[in-house]
What we know:
single chain; Sodium/glucose cotransporter; 21 helices; mainly alpha
Amino acid sequence: MSTQVIAVLSSLALYMVIIVGIGIYSSRFSRGTMEDYHMGSRDFRTIVLFSAVFGANISAVTLAGVPGGAYHVGWVMWPYFASSWAWATPLLFYTVGSRSWVLGKKFGYMTVAEVVGGRWKSPTLAVVISLMLIFYTVPYLMTGLLGAGRTLEALTEGFVSLNVGMVIVAAAVLVYLLLGGMRGAAWVNTFQTGIFIVGAVAIFIVIAAALGGPAEATRRVMADYPELISRSRMPWQQFFSYGVIVALSPIVFPQLFMRLLTGKDPKTLKQTMCIYPVPAFLMMFLMATVGMWGRTAIPGLEGAESDAILPMLLIQFTPIWMMGLLGAAAFAAMMSTMDSQLLSVTTMITRDFLTRSRLKDASDATMVRISRVLVLVLTLVALILGFLNPIGIIKIIEFSLSGFACMLAPVLAALYWKRCTSQAALWSVVASQVCLWSFEMGLLPASWRFNFLSGLPAIVVGVVVLVAVTYVTPAPQDEGTREYFAIFDKTTP
C-alpha cells in the first residue's frame, strides 16, 4: 500500500468518524416521532437551515459533473449552471417555501404531494406527483454514490474500487441517517458545508498555483483548446434550456422542499435565501474553471472518464497530506445530497402512500421503524443501480432535472392561483411528462425540439395544458381551496 493510499484512507477514516459521531450525538435529542425523525421538529435556525438546504443542493454534480463537463465544453459550464440557478432558485425557494411553511406548520405537511394534493383534497393528484418525484430522485441519488466512488477510486489509484467506494460511502450515510434522521443529517450537513466550501477554495488555489497561476493556466487553455474559452461547443438553445431547467427544478426536489419546511420561522427562511447566492456562484465558478484547466493538464479523457478529473488533478498536483483532506471535501459535497435524498424518498413513501393504507393508524414509533427500514432498502437500490455503472453524471442529471422542472407549474398554481382546478394540475403533470419521455425515447422527432433540451418544450406543454384545462373546467369550490387561501390572507410569512 503506497503512502498516497494510506494518507487518503486515513483522512477519509477521520472524516467518517466525525460525521458518524455527529449522527450518534444527534440521536440523543430524538423525540421518537415522525415529525422529529423526518423534519427535525421544524426548529432549525439560520445556519443549520442554510447548511441543510445548500448541502442538499451541492452534490456530485458540482464536484464531479461540472468539472467533468467543463473538461469537454469549457468555462461555459459555470454560467450553464449558475446563470439563473444562483439567483432565481433562492427566489423560488422563498416564493414556494414561505407559503408551504405556513401549510406545514398548520397541517403537518412534509411533502410536495401533500401540499398540492391538499389544496384540492385530491388523493389521485397527490399519488401521481409523489410517484413522479420518487422516479426522478432515485437516479439522482445514484449519482452521489457514483461520484464518491469514482473520487475514492481515483485518489487511491484503484486500491479501492468504484464498487467498494460506493459501499463505504453508503454505509457511513446510513449510520448517521438511521440514528439521527433529519436532525442528524442537518447537523452533519452543517459540518460538511463548511468543509466543502473551504475545500473548494483550497482546491482552486492549490491547482492554480501548480499550473503557474490562474492567468498561466488559462493561457494554456487558450493556446491549446481555444474553443473552451467560448460558448462554441454549446449551442445557445442548450445553454438557454439549462438556464431555465436548472433554475426551476430545485424547489421541486423533495429533499430541498422538505428542508425549507424545517426552519423555525419565516424570518429564518428569508435569511437563508439571502445567504444562498454567494456560495452558489462561487462553488460553480471554482469547479468549472478547475475542470477546464484539467483539459491541458491531463488530456485525452473521454466521456464519463472526465467525471474523475478533480481527483486526478489532486493526485498530480497536491502534496500527499493535502490530497486526503481535499478529497474529504469532495465526499462532503456528495454525501450531503445523498442523505437528504434518502430521507426525502422515505418521507414520501411513508406520508404519501403508507398513511393511505392499513398503516394509517400505526403509532409514530412503528412508522419511524418503517422509515429506517426504507432508508436501508433505498440505499441498496441506489447501490445496485450504481453497480451497473451507467452513463456520465451530467446525462443522468439532465433527465432528472427536466422531470422535476415540469412539476413546478402545478405547485405554483396550488399555492397562488385560486382559479386553477385539480383536473388542470393533474393533466399538466401527465402532459409534460409524456412529452419529456417521448422526446427522450425517440417517439417524437428531435427536430420538434428545435435544438432545445427535451425538458424545455415539456415545461411549455405543461404550462399550456394547465392554463387551458383550468378555463374549460368549472372554477373550484372545494374546501381545500377556501382553506388554503384563507390561511394565506391571514398570514404574512
